[in-house]
Amino acid sequence: MTVFEATTGRGETPPADSVAPRDSTADAPTSVTRLNATIRDFIARWNTVWVEGEITSWNVRAGNVFARLKDTRSDAQISIRVWSSVRGRIPSDIGIGDHVVAAVKADYFVKAGDFSFAVSAMKHVGLGDQLERLEKLRAQLRQEGLFDSSRKKRLPFLPHVIGLITGERSDAEKDVHRNAELRWPQVRFRTEYAAVQGDRCVPDTLAALARLDADPEVDVIIIARGGGDPQTLLGFSDERLVRAVAAASTPVVSAIGHENDHPLLDDVADLRASTPTDAAKRVVPDVGEQRALIAQLRSRATTRLTQRLTHDIAQLEQLRSRPVLRSPAPIIDARAQEIWLLLGRGRDTVNRQLDDAGRRTGELRASLRALSPAATLARGYAIAHLDGGVILRDAADAPAGSTLTITLDRGSLTARSEGEIAEDA
């Protein structure tokens, strides 16, 4: 029996009634503890090796890190552990998707029969190939404007039918239904099942999206999955699916994973929900909250209306209490007497002005008549006019043969001049 077969390691001695694994038979089997101890002691002789790969999961518990490292050229993976004593010696920004090289030593836990590698050193090599391609695609789509908030559609306040794309009999489906129905019991769903990881994820989701987007009754579409590591969420960063969501006429909500998950679908969707539960709460209003809001608004309206009516009634009573409105007859009678007096005074004033104007008009008429040529004609005079209406004032202006028009008090006549008469004649 070798030394590593005889002990369980760390100074522990295997049970006395257990035989070594190499000596075990059906009648004398070895114990699980001794088998695990033998495996552990054999693995403990392996040396530290440097390994290269892509980190696909990174979970911190009690200061220790439990992660998985994947070969960038195949699907081979190993489990690695970074103890809290080592974390301070590795870059603090290492996380999922990073391409790293690590110094690892095999470790086998006897109690759980768990095989993993303990990390003693780790450093960056670069982004993992897949995540590097995704970041390039993310930058391209952002440059094209597919992530702009201006192109994203508003969700309806209360959708008549919610389209749901999720895995069949999945927890995500149950979460969305349960939380939506708690908030609005009459909510209706149209569910399309699709593979949420693997090779069928993208074609199934594209087909489901096309069917729901073509349905006129569907007001909003939720794509839901219960989270996962970046490897299982790759389908939701596929360029075909991302562009199809951007081109959909129906608002799309992305509820792919947990708060830290971030596929490209989150960026292009009209709304990003952190979880399927969050999606249900943000798509469907809470009936209790809406009823409380309506009651609050009704109460506020009633209060405001009551205050307005009370104010207006008080103002009306104040106006009615004034003397002019309480007993208007004395005031009207007093004003009526004043009006009659003013009317009489106005009438007298107008009559005096008319009399004065009549007298003045008569005087002006008499003056005008005294100066009028008609009065002169009435006394027997006449007015001689030359052709063109020129009044004749000098006999020399009417030589012999000139035609004259003689205007008398009554009518006029035509005469012909025989020339100027000599004074001695």
From TrEMBL:
It is found in: Cytoplasm. It comes from the Bacteria. Residues 31-122 form the OB-fold nucleic acid binding domain. One of its GO terms (biological process) is DNA catabolic process. This is Exodeoxyribonuclease 7 large subunit. It is an enzyme of class 3 (hydrolase). Heterooligomer composed of large and small subunits. Its EC number is 3.1.11.6. Belongs to the XseA family. InterPro entries: Exonuc_VII_L (IPR003753), Exonuc_VII_lsu_C (IPR020579), OB-fold_nuc-bd_dom (IPR025824). Bidirectionally degrades single-stranded DNA into large acid-insoluble oligonucleotides, which are then degraded further into small acid-soluble oligonucleotides. Keywords: Cytoplasm, Exonuclease, Hydrolase, Nuclease. Residues 146-339, 345-415 form the Exonuclease VII large subunit C-terminal domain. It catalyses: Exonucleolytic cleavage in either 5'- to 3'- or 3'- to 5'-direction to yield nucleoside 5'-phosphates. Residues 1-28 are annotated as: Disordered. NCBIfam families: xseA. One of its GO terms (cellular component) is exodeoxyribonuclease VII complex. GO terms for molecular function: exodeoxyribonuclease VII activity; nucleic acid binding. It holds the Pfam family Exonuc_VII_L. The keyword Hydrolase applies.
